[in-house]
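Same chain as my last thread, 109 residues:
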Amino acid sequence: MAGRGKLIAVIRDRNTFTSFLLSGIGELNKHCHPNFLVVEKDTTINEIKDTFWHFLNRDDIGIILINQYIAEMVWHALDTHIRSIPAVLEIPSKERPYDAAKDSTLFHA
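reply #2:
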């Protein structure tokens, strides 16, 4: 990835994902893996966790944005991440406001 910027990966619900996709954030890498996951009602916790781990291990991703309520579903995976890159940022969803007291990334120093 020398000489090229890093991507932002997104794990979000459908209601709040559309604006990110319209802004051009969606991309496939050379192996046709997307840098996003849209979490639907039938998306399993294992799918979310596996996607999160996949994003952590990609060398082209610098930031992972995840809806806070989705992060709560896989908190054990987020808790084990201690590297600064990719940075993991919990963000609000359309229906669920952000609660700083629940943000696991704020408690890692």
